[in-house]
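Minimal example, chain plus adenosine-5'-diphosphate.
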Amino acid sequence: MSVKQFPCSLEWLSNLQFSDQQLQTINRYRCLMGIDGFAFWQWHQASQNFSIHGELCKLAGYDFDEVQCLTQVNQVRGLFHPDDLERSVAIIRHHAHHNTPIHLSFRLQRKTGGYMWVTTMANSLRDDSGIITDIVGVAFDASALHRTQEALRTAELRLQRIMNACNDGIWEWDVINDRMECSDRVMQHLGFNSYDEIALGAKNALQGWTRRIHAEDYPGFRKAVRKTYEEQSTFDVAYRVADRDGIYRWVRTRAVGGYDELGQLMVISGTNIDITEIKLAQDRMERARDDAESANLSKSKFLSGMSQELRTPMNAILGYAQLFEFDTNLTSQQRTNVREIRKAGEHLIQLIDDVLDLSKIESGNVNLTLEPVNIPDIARDCVALSQPQSSALGISFNTEIDESEDLIALCDRVRLKQVLLNLFSNGIKYNRTAGWVNVKIFVLDEDQVCISVEDNGYGISEAKQAELFQPFNRLGAEKTAIEGSGVGLVITKSLVEMMGGTISVYSQQDIGSCFEIHLPRCESFADDVSLSIDSIIDENKTFSLDLQSPKKILFIEDSAANARLMSKLFHHINNLALEVADEPLLGVYKARTEKPDVLLLDLAENESDTLEVIKILNSDSDTKSIPKLAFVNGASRAQEQKLAELGIVSLLSKPINIGQLMNALQRVLK
Ligand code: ADP
């Protein structure tokens, strides 16, 4: 078939006569050729003539006449970017031999200089023997498309760079076609170089991967995938995967699903991070923590064992000192001396407990008995205890107590004593010759009682104040002859805070320091049984609890010394009778037959037997409801709870604190 060459000028058409149908067709083609940015071209093979029509040429800056002159294919070649020529010729040649479609993008020289991207699609007309006679095509401006492609390519390269730079593996699983795409890093995490290596012997890379997951972790992995399928949830799972040498590495996979409008999962895209090092570090940390915990436990065991060893003889000293205090044959001076022995002994016990306390505080194992405490009473006790120390160093001790209001705070009296003794002792120790320590107690506001301990000693510089309350940090005092361990203030602060209070410091180097404690204020005592042991002894007086009728107490205690001490004490109490059972079975028998109003037990001495007794009494309906009080040597919170469940209504400290005991008895017998 031969094709007539298109005339160059469209005006030429208007001089011819056409049927209406032909005119319609011509107009249609005219219209098409007028589309912005398009051109139609024809290349006649025999003559090598070339013709082109359309607005594309205008876009490249050529006017009508210039286009008219573009009649030879060589002229057209001259407008191609040199770099695109060879590829373009090859595509046309390939078309000629294989009849593949011509689809070609090239850069066309603009009249004004520079190039514009043009895409052309063409086909050929062949004669009966298959020889190409003409090639005809359409060309259009592809600048915008090319810019988009270019931007896409840049973005892809950037993404590739990021993917290569980051250590995360990136992957996408086409769920519908079961196809996996992943970055090299995914494979490299397991020591493979390519996707194919891991897929070897498996259906695909996904299967190759999942087959390597540790058997223990696989169910978790599957579950996470299922959740993503069914609940559209994100996927975040850490698991072990065997690398190419069979060594397990920890991988964390995070992914999200892509769903169609019906909610069906189409694709899952995600990242893999190699967390092996993190896991190993975590394991090391956990091991170190376990080691530290067990070392701490051994330390606590050792310390509590030690303190127990020291406590037992101290208990005896204190117990017998108390017995002496009841002895009416003593002169008042002797009684004062005995009292000093007792107080000093109590102080010593406190010191033994300091180290134990610190370890208990550190392990969160400190128990407090919070009760309304008359602060001035405690402060006076502590001042008296500190007096020998202050006199020895020539420090004057002054107390200013504003007793116009009740100075009662909810706190643990023993712990408060410990706190005050430490602050007083510091005020004395870190002081100059003829210095002073002022203790002021006053109501700060409706809710708080303030105890301030001020001295005009060495003071603490601002820089060192930042290091206060750090265990074993003596702020340089270790270089002096002043004795100390550097734990007192740590314990003090912890105790004050555990009692719901606060502690603050105001200090100036070479001027002095003021430690201020604020404690929660509370109502006065419910009764008047906060009898000080001193008053009982000094006046050899007896006293009564506020009771409707006399009551019977059964004390089950196999330590003869403790039993004797308690019996002596109860001689001074009018309306309480004490019965002692010096062995557990006798205790059970007496509880059943004599029906005491209160049972007093000693868990501090023989815990397992005493617990057994409690269990037996609890299983008997006759003895079950008898209120039980128990002496303990400090109990952990868990222990306290266990004892409360066993019906112990009050835990009493050892050595015996008479005020605390009386308060507890008053409460249960009221
Ligand atoms: P210790 O007295 O056993 O060294 P503390 O914990 O009680 O331990 O006190 C820590 C440090 O704080 C002391 O070593 C001392 O340097 C400083 N410090 C405490 N109280 C005072 C005070 N009132 N005046 C000056 N320095 C003090």
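The pocket of adenosine-5'-diphosphate is lined by residues 422, 426-427, 430, 455, 457-460, 468, 474-475, 477, 484-489, 513 (CB under 6 Å). Residues 276-326 form the longest helix (51 residues).
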